Amino acid sequence: MRSGQARLAIDYGSADTTAVLAWPDGTWTPLLFDGEPALPSAVLLSEDGTTVTGHHAWRAAPATPHRFIPHPRQPSEQRLTVADTDVDPLDLVAATLRHVAEQAHQLAGTGIHDVRLVVPAGWGPRRRTWMRHAAHRAGLPPPQLIDAPTAVAGHLLATGLQLPVGAYIAVCDVGATAEVSVLRRGPAGFEVLATLADPTAGGTAIDDALTTTLTTSPPGTGGQRWAMAASLRAGKHALTDHPAVTVPLPDGPAVVLHTGLLDQAAQPVLHRIAHLATEAITAAELTPRDLTGVYCVGGTARLPLLAKTLTDAGITGTLVDQPTLAAARGAADAGATNTIDPTTTEEPLPPVRRAAAIALPGFASLALVSQFLLTPEWRGSLMYREAILNWGELTMAAVFAVIACLSAGTVLASTIANRTTTPTSPGIHTGTGILAAASLGVAVSGMYAVVGSLYVGYPVNGFLRWTLLPITPTITAAAVMALIAARQWRTPAGGWSKLLAFPTGSVLTAAAGMLLIQYSLTADRWPHLLLWIDLAGRVGGLLLGIGTVMAVVSQPILRLILSAPLAVITAALVSWPASGILGAIYAIAVTTWWLRQMWTHLLRPHRPPQ
Fold first, then answer.
1. Angle at 607 between CA 604 and CA 610, to 5 degrees
2. Strand, helix or coil at 247?
3. How far is CA 118 from CA 122, 147, 152, in A?
4. Structure confidence by residue, pLDDT tens digits, 291-337
5. β-bridge partners, 388
6. Residue 80: per-residue pLDDT
């Protein structure tokens, strides 16, 4: 069981229903029904009055076709007659939602109080109220209704799509039916400018065309019809992984279904979808060139021919990752963005030991820059003296200054986020803290360069080159992480201060290594101490290599494996000419650590919990 209250997002479609559970730490998982992420929306009323849902309803349909309802989602005022009995479609929809709720409770292990339902953008107040009543009959808490295209747009933002305020996009939702919506991103969210739907332009129409193509005579209204429909559903699904599949027919020999036949049957339907998209864009008083992109979701959107058909119509379509789950995923993210629950997204208060650890890189930076300034190697006569400087030590002093500033900024931001009572995402405080700390780190590094230039009496250019250039990649990575933290609602497990806590063991080991290296390069070369001084430098090189690996790798076994060769290399490099290379190596390791933390945080929301 995961900590915090889970959010349940349900995308109830005409043919299939998908749902995901999301947690406050950003992890999520799709609900599986008989091992599949899509639950058929179809229901079957058995003779004893119970309702059979999903895959079980499809399997029972050939035996009792007069009790099978493949598409329960009907207009709110419509009634159905099943086996000479009037049935309220609301009860049928509630049966499927109840099935989803039971599956979600089993997975979450606790009650779910936050539910989002995805609805078509073209639905008016009556149909939206009807859907709320269905959720109530299913035993769900009052749901938050989210328009399907808005949910998809939220999913696109959560997965990294850059959409500036004022950008236009179109969402082409192609499942059993088709709906195309044009949206504009405003300062407060997405606004639906136009939406058009066509119930005859979707997967159901393609299934009917396939039936006509594969059979000499259309099936009747009895069990053969649903048996064939079930075979076609399975065949279409299998074509996503195989170029051709064998489809059994209830009234004849099996036939081979391949992508060519599927494209032939789908082409007229896909042309209607392209025409629908063109009309929707025109209705929004835009042209395809005005759009940032056209994004396709839904099971039928996986057909490769759809992108080609849209391109032929002058529209560039992009298939969204996990198209059947995009709306449900976006509904979970959109709800979390709009409603920040302090009980589930609160930034933990950093422990005292983490705040105290900030001092370590700070003291290491001061020790290194002090030794750098006090121990230059002077060569030449009095009038032509030349200072031989350990540029690598100056580089590492600047790197540790940046680490100290970033650590302090993150801890302070986490503390402020924990103490604040305003409804603001902790990531906003963290992003602000990182940017401010990065600026301070650059200022401190620049100060080291200026002080070093004045103290040694050399032009400042060389000092700036060894302080600012090595930290630029780290500062850039930190700035990107700040933007990620500010725009995303989720808080990492343990808080931002834990995610961005640089390993103190690496700081201590690498700093000790560079101090020993500089000592070995500048100590008096008494004959009887020469061996010990050189040994100190080699040990320093070993420690620097080990500290570098500790920054990049967290697993102990990998640290052990990688430390040996790198430590030998850095120990062999200890010399005046190679001192700058040693500092640059550690600066690269610090940048790699920031990139790894960023990558880990970005991947976590898309990985189902184990």
1. 110
2. strand
3. 12, 6, 10
4. 999 999 988 888 888 889 999 999 998 989 889 999 999 998 764 44
5. 377
6. 78
Q: pTM score > 0.85 for this model?
A: no
Nearest Cα to Cα of residue 418 among 493, 346, 489: 346
Report the half-sphere exposure of 504 (CA within 13 A, side-chain side).
12
End-to-end CA distance of the chain: 10
In degrees and rounded to multiples of 5, residue 378 shows phi and psi of -95, 135
**541 near 510, Cβ under 8 Å?**
no
70 close to 204: Cβ distance less than 8 angstroms = no
| CA distances (Å), origin 157, targets 121, 153, 190, 193 | 19, 6, 11, 19
* Per-residue three-class SS string for 50-116: CEEEHHHHHHHCCCCHHHEECCCCCCCCCCEEECCEEECHHHHHHHHHHHHHHHHHHHHCCCCCEEE
Count of alpha carbons within 13 angstroms of residue 58, beta-carbon side:
19
Phi, psi torsion values for 583, nearest 5 degrees = -65, -40
| CA–CA dist 242, 529 (Å, integer) | 74
Task: Decide if 259 contacts 302 (C-beta within 8 A).
Answer: no
Take residue 481 and report the two structure tokens written for it.
């992480």
Mean pLDDT of 6-35: 89
- pLDDT (tens digit per residue) in 109-155: 877 888 999 999 989 888 998 999 999 999 999 999 999 999 999 99
Q: Is the distance from CB of 150 to CB of 121 less than 8 angstroms?
A: yes
Q: Report helix, strand or coil for 40.
A: strand
| Angle (nearest 5°) at CA 493 between 491 and 497 | 75
Quote the tokens at residue 419.
């103490």
Range list of H helices, 457-553: 460-487, 496-499, 504-522, 530-552
The first and second tokens of residue 340, run together, are 């920040």
Question: Residue 607's Cα: distance from chain center in Å?
Answer: 9
Where helices occur in 339-425 by DSSP H, the ranges are 342-345, 352-356, 359-374, 391-419
Q: Rounded to an integer, what distance in angstroms lies between the CA atom of residue 20 and that of residue 330?
A: 10
**Torsions phi, psi for 186 (to 5 deg):** -105, 180
| Extended strands (E) in 120-164 | 144-147
**Maximum CA pair distance of the chain?**
112
Kindly state the helix (H) or strand (E) to which residue 217 belongs, with its residue range. Answer: none
Asked if 423 and 417 touch (Cβ cutoff 8 Å), the reply is no
pLDDT band of residue 494 (cuts 50, 70, 90) is: low
d(CA 436, CA 438): 5
CA distance 197 to 181: 9
- 213, 261 Cβ separation under 8 angstroms: yes
Q: Are 290 and 168 in contact (CB under 8 A)?
A: yes
Q: Are strands 85-87 and 80-82 parallel, antiparallel or unpaired?
A: antiparallel
pLDDT band with cut points at 50, 70 and 90 for residue 342:
very low
3 state SS for 137-187 = HCCCCCCEEEEHHHHHHHHHHHCCCCCCCCCEEEEEEECCCEEEEEEEEEC
Q: How far apart are CA 155 and CA 145, in angstroms?
A: 16
CB 233 within 8 A of CB 70: no
